[in-house]
Amino acid sequence: MKKKVPENSRGSETALEILDSLLKDSGQKKINENQIVVILDALASADDADLVARFPAVLAICARRGLSLNSSALFSRYWETSPKRQNLEKLLLASAMIFKFQRLKPPGNLDQIAASLKPKYGDLLSAGEFQLSSGMIISMQDLENSLISYLSGHLQSQVNQGQIAPLRSETLDVYLDRLFSPKQKELVFKKRDGITFTKTEREYYSRIVRKKLEAIASQEVGRIAKNLMRKTGKSQI
Asked: What is the pTM of this model?
């Protein structure tokens, strides 16, 4: 006997199918506010942590498409004390913190929504992880990694399709700021873009910047970094 699939389960599957198509899309697929609400709602209620971690990526899609979040549409279907509403609130607050930390442009109204939620949840997220109504523990680092993975993949897709030249992305700038001084970062981009150095710049690049790049490009350093990131995936950020 075939087991009947609940309506809300089918709705979640449809929402996730839409999300998958958006994450793979170059930006031409149309999406409206109602679809965003359905997708965010489905992710907040998902029983798979990897799916929940895609929540900030959906907000990045909103920001890229110029879509603002409608708090009324997001919350009006639930009572104030509804566990599903609290899941949404926690994920929105966590996502706003990650956008701010990564210095990324958030979708419209996200900062305002987060500001209204902060008094309610206080330092809930200060431990680097939080619990949803299902008991699932969500790591801030996993949410951040998922967002960065989406942004990197989207940028590379645009480059591959010839939509943009391989210029600076917001994520790349953030990472380079953590590794290089402003002057060193400028030389990295000049070298990449084939711009001729002055004699002083060439000497400085060879003496300082090149050595840093060699260390970053080391396969051994890359393996260690990836292993440590996996081990500290649920630690504080």
From this structure: 0.61
